[in-house]
Design brief:
heterodimer; A: alpha+beta; two-stranded antiparallel ribbon; about 20% helix; globular; B: mainly alpha
Chain lengths: ~120, ~160
Amino acid sequence: MTYVVTENCIKCKYMDCVEVCPVDCFYEGKNMLVIHPDECIDCGVCEPECPAEAILPDTAPGLDKWLKLNAEYAEVWPNIVAKGEPPTDAGAFDGQPDKFEKYFSSNPGQGDGPGNQPKDEEAAA
Amino acid sequence: MDAHRQARADPNTPAACCGSCAPEETVRIHQVTEPAVGLLVDRFYARVRKDPELGPIFAGAIEDWDPHLATMRDFWSSIMLTSGRYHGNPVAAHRRLAGLTPQLFERWLALFAETCGELFDEALAANFMDKARRIAASLQLALFYRPEHDRPRSAP
């Protein structure tokens, strides 16, 4: 079980989610973020933080395409752990239809994870 | 929720005044605050450490409890108050532990539910338990799920 970043993140990329995620499982593309499905602990903290309402639980219907996209790009894009500056024109793209076809970029973003090394810390709960 | 109890559960004078006064109290906390999270974590792990099933697992993994309790307060504060204070990798932390079983996760959840039930009103306890169950399920998927053990699904 995981949460999934969906279409409306594209070109909006507000990144509020990154600040609250306890397990740093967001990965940054050029114009959207994705969640690593194997790192997400399903806590749901990020969902209400997204101003674009682009984050959904994988139990929501019709998310197969986005589940696959999140899993695929979380493996290749860099980790992001702190909110950066959202695009200045984010508001203009919020809610636009067909953003994937028009704007999706498979290019990686900057990322800011600690060297984007594999994480391995903290004791058990 | 019982209106009488709600009226008495003033968040400004929470039962979260100390770590030992609440079990017999009828006033239960109904709002998440940092002191409420702290009280839950301290009381829950005191119970875990005495538990015959969970105690030995934790004793084998944690040498110094003060930092661990601080980490767990940060974790639950991040989950329930979106404070962003915890940053870690619980999946990796649990992978290092030998002897974890789904039954131990159930035991953990039972003790957590017991502690939430003592301290919090029904709605707040349910909020904590909802998060705890989701996270426990997610950790177990990461730890125990083996796709090769899946039975082939029959065609619809």
